[in-house]
Amino acid sequence: PLPAVESAIGFDETLSLVCTMYPDHSPGAQGYASKEATFTLLQTSGRGGSDRKLAKASVDLARYASVDSISDTSTFVLLHDGVPVGDLELTISSRWLKHYSRPESDHSLVGGDS
Questions:
Q1: 64 backbone dihedrals φ, ψ, rounded to 5°
Q2: Distance between CA atoms of residues 5 and 86, nearest Å
């Protein structure tokens, strides 16, 4: 086997995602029903080539949903064909937007413009 190589790529990016969370009505459940978000690491080739999917990691947003504002740094496993190939470290902040309405000029990058 080859020796493990320690390397990291940092991205100082902010992603905003507004989503509706529903209470989990399962017997004995507390909190919110599961809602999965998936992050995909793509390799893009220049000159109009196609993207190559390198790995992905999924996050259950229900874990971070709360009426109280939270911020938590967590590490998720990046998988390629079910095999762990790296780690994804995210700081996830959550807050309740009781009276939120999206401005007409704001277009969603996720899930269309509805």
A1: -105, 0
A2: 11
